[in-house]
Amino acid sequence: MQDQSPSKIKRNTDSAIEDGLARLTPEKITETINQVLQKETGPRLKAYVETCMRCGLCSDACSYFLSNDRNPEFSPAAKVKQTIWEMIAKKGKVSKDFMRRAVHIAHIECNVCRRCSMYCPFGIDIAYMMLLVRRICHKLEITPQYIQDTVNSHSVTMNQMWVKEDEWIDTLQWQEEDAREEFDNLRIPLDKHGADIMYSVIAPEPKFQAGLIYQAATIMHAAGINWTMPSGPGWDNSNMAMFTGDSEISGRIARTFYETAAKLNVKRIVMGECGHAFRSIYDVGNRWISWAMPPFEIVHALEFYHELLTQGRITIGEKYKKKVTLHDPCNVSRGRGLHDMAREVVRMTCDDFVDMVPNREHNYCCGAGGGVVNCGPPYKTERMVNNRVKAEQLAATGAQVLIAPCHNCHSGLEDIVHHYKLDMEVKFLGDIIFETMEKKIYRPGE
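Above: the chain sequence. Below: its structure as tokens.
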């Protein structure tokens, strides 16, 4: 397996960060840091900072630390020491060079996956503190360019890929026509008022992976689901703003999504296979608009597939034959506890399943989540070095197919497979179900 020494890592930056730093004054840096720390935090941050004993038990939980030959600089506690602790200790009086490093640590060297919190004896949420650093960077306007562009697109068009309304509808019509090769009378219903389910996807699907909408429509039709998709803004369930520290835009994106579902008067929302989008709609976006929980039942694709299979609404003809392994997305496994349900779905659809070690909520992050992959090409080579432990974990399974039920995970794992020359194909769980299901319509009682 191809390797690269961590000592040779070149820590890149990009024009948005450098231009932003050039505009900053010492006074602006200090004022912004203190505003966030004094006005936007409280006992939670104080408890974390004062409780941490610098014991280092979080270190072995971090894939960055392990991938970089246990370099102490990559320990979660060290990342906090190099960023938020210094800001507190110096009362915000830090330099531009300090902030350049802080941007890199918070955005490129931490996936905010929260694996480290499981190994901290006090349960300190280091991801929360890294997100605070990102919040400060956002307010200083030194967020990496590519992820900021994604947020800008979502702010203007209500989808992260700048997909125009007519392009969105054209894509759905195109996939509906293609899906009629499976079922003559299949429809992708738009704006169907009172449907049981609103199905939502992230913008990369109509932009780059429209076939996934085809597959979802086929599954919905075969299962006899009363469903719909929105024709206008609010169909994209992603939310990169929650990873840039832009809480205001994050809340606006979530509100638009909820309002779209409310206008259609649907009973529940089924999300596509995206972990961060699920987290945004299920447990983050609602809080930025002061709701304890979302106003609708939110169901991730994993739960939905499990429901359809166990209820017999779709049936498997012949199980998938190739040897498969399963990646646990942080936001639906560690964050929502769907890891065992995912394995039940895999075993119902696949003949030969081997688990990774470690697995379930202890699985290593894909290295792309938390907005890291969205920071773009300037950081890809460094990201691959930081993902070495994940590549080793994948190679040890001997699997031919890697199932990744999350878009960012899928993209990040494809990069790892390519970079480390692993003989492995990456698939969504929906790909497996579509390939193995019987193409017949569910009729109760038959």
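Confidence is low (pLDDT under 50) at residues 2-7.
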